Amino acid sequence: MPPPVFRFAPSPNGYLHLGHAYSALLNFELAREADGRLLLRIEDIDAARSKPEFEAAIYEDLGWLDIAWETPVRRQSKHLADYRAALESLSVQGLIYPCFESRAEIAQLVEQLEKNVPWPRDPDGAPLYPGAAKSLPSAERAHVLESGIPYALRLDMAAACARAGDLNWIELGEGPGGERGVITARPQEWGDVILARKDTPTSYHLSVVIDDALQGVAEVVRGQDMFWSTSVHRLLQQLLGLPQPCYRHHRLVLDGAGRKLSKSSEATGLRELRAGGIGPTEIRRLVG
Questions:
Q1: Residue 231: what are its φ and ψ, rounded to 5°?
Q2: Which of 38, 79, 175, 272 could form a disulfide with 31 if both were Cys (CB 3.0 to 4.6 A apart)?
């Protein structure tokens, strides 16, 4: 049998923090224990936020932690054709549709709807798509597309779930509520998720399943904040005929207030800790 493949897949939109260090070290150690391979993937589909200096810092920080990975590194921005092909497959199946509302318009629509009853939300707390783009007549849809206004491509979740049937995944780690073993996927709880936008032919959900399949990843090791997103990923794997990896969701490294570390909250980066005299051994101790 070929050696198992693991991967660490950061986005170059900020500097790595302790949470990233924990995930990278865990993937590295699991790959070593299994005589497997560790791949590094740069998830840079967000062109507006991805910066060369952040990507360079990723390599520097991982090297400082004595983490070794295989080359070449897969950079998502260089493989957009792979994601377009997947979207075309879903389109042929009649499972995606364009929607034209802006984020502000969707927020306003939800606000109006919630004057009567609470509007359903996904596992991350975001409101499900409330618009009517899916029911637009084909001629009207074509006319709007020809006008050149921005749009997003959404998955018709009801049709997709009907086609895929019941799904599950093998959880080798633990979910946020202690879930483990065979987990029943519940993709319908996410509503009609966005799979691409007019100017970016992919999304996290789509690109991650394509990349994992193309790179032969056997065990996806990532934080518990992505646990229920696996439902969407299992659905896309089924619809696209992709192999099913096992999943190992790990605990999150939290700040003093009990919140997960994030780039958006300006969590202290590894480079600042290194500049303050902390070494790789101390980092391993800090992340447990």
A1: -60, -45
A2: 38
